[in-house]
Amino acid sequence: MRAVDWRRSKFSKFTVDPQTESGIIMDNEACASVEKELDRVVTKLEQLHENSAAEIGDIASLMSELVNVLGNAEQMVVTTLNTGTQINATDNVSGSGNSSSDDPMGDGINMQVETEPSAPQRLTDRQMEIIREAISKCNERVQKLSTEHRELHGSVSKIGKAIDRNYSSDFSSTMRVDALQDEDNLMLLNKAIAKHYCRQGMDEVARTLIKECKMSEDHAQDVFDSEREFAEIYNIWNQIQKRELGDALDWAVRHSSQLLERHSLIEFRLHRMRFMQLVSNGLKSQNEAILYARTNFQKFAVRYENEIANLMASFIYLPGGLENTPYRIFLSQDMWTELSFTFLKDACQLLGISKNSALSVVVNAGCTALPALLNIKQVMQSRQVLGMWNGCDELPIEIDLQPEFRFHSLFACPILRQQTTEDNPPKKLTCGHVISNDALHKLSNGHILKCPYCPVEQNAEEAVRIYF
């Protein structure tokens, strides 16, 4: 992103370095304020966790004691009832007479004894006291946990308030609302969104968007044609993360010669991972692993001789498995994730396509630039120079983006010390030196131009525009 000439002679008092007070310092203060609230919540949450564990442990102990008391009481009731029943039965039998001759049924007949039900047994005073005490303590602890939990909700809500207080949520101030009033621009945005969906394998969503925005057939076909190759790459990338290498190996074999010319590592790494997959299966896959190594490692023997030799040494650990060996790294998910992203990067470079969609690049770059733009917007509002914001197609300040967002070279004129633009393109003189078009007109005297770096005089009209 390029910065416009701020016309220092007129607007120097309004300029603000976004990397000083209005930029990094303000952001650091805001982050520190929010982080302070977050630390409070984390501390309270840790304390609540410790207190809850202790309180729940106490409740469990009380309940265990209560269960034991009730169990003992039940056993005492059962014992009392059984004893009373046996005594009543004995009395009834004895009262019928001691002589067997008076018993018309004889001794060989079992006599059934009917007894009156005993009165229900009550718990002892001590048992009732223990039960009431346990229930009271449980209620107190549950109430305490509930109160502490409600207090935590208040602390969590303060984080949101701190974010709203320290960060601006009104991003509309940095918008160019007139940009999407043009039908062509709106269609470009719809195409970018549709291409992003295609890259994610969401073709049906892309078709729905195309239908609802009434995109022309030519634009719709361009969406799917431009992303067809990436859709295959994205699908293989997903499969590698799921530890499936079949399609990835087929793709690498199809592009083997091109990958070797570019000195890419991805083909060997795919074969290496497949070999380690076979080895990790144990002795049952030993022969298959040996055959796979003989078939696929031969063309890498010169370049990766030492690494292939190390891979062959993994057979020593087959009886005990690879889990506790130096080769366990090949079983980790980190290795598979790294392999998938290496494949994505090399495949996109080979096919000449970007690994990130245009929409994701624009969104990520915009998120990086947004804090500085919000700061400079506030300054421009306070100084009443908002006309500078919409006066051109460039940003009012320079945004320092990361290297991954730089897709072409920038040329700064060595004479005027400003970056070239479409209206002020770089021009190459016949002597080979390059200056901006504005500098060319300022230095030329009619058609005669003397190069500012060498004494060669030349015709200014012979200078040609160059592209980076």
From TrEMBL:
One Pfam family hit: CTLH
Subcellular location: Cytoplasm
Position of the signal peptide: none
Domain of life: Eukaryota
A GO BP entry: proteasome-mediated ubiquitin-dependent protein catabolic process
SMART domains: CRA, CTLH
Low complexity composition bias: residue spans: 91-108
Gene Ontology MF annotations: ubiquitin protein ligase activity; zinc ion binding
GO cellular component terms, A-Z: cytoplasm; GID complex; nucleus
Domain RING-Gid-type: 413-454
PROSITE patterns, per database record: CTLH, LISH, ZF_RING_GID
SUPFAM superfamilies documented for this protein: RING/U-box
Keywords: Cytoplasm, Metal-binding, Zinc, Zinc-finger
Zinc finger (RING-Gid-type): 413-454
Residue runs in coiled coils: none
This protein's record includes keyword rRNA-binding: no
Occurrences of domain CTLH (ranges): 229-286
Region described as Disordered: 87-121
Protein name: E3 ubiquitin-protein ligase RMND5A
Organism, as annotated: Drosophila albomicans (Fruit fly)
GN (gene name): LOC117572518
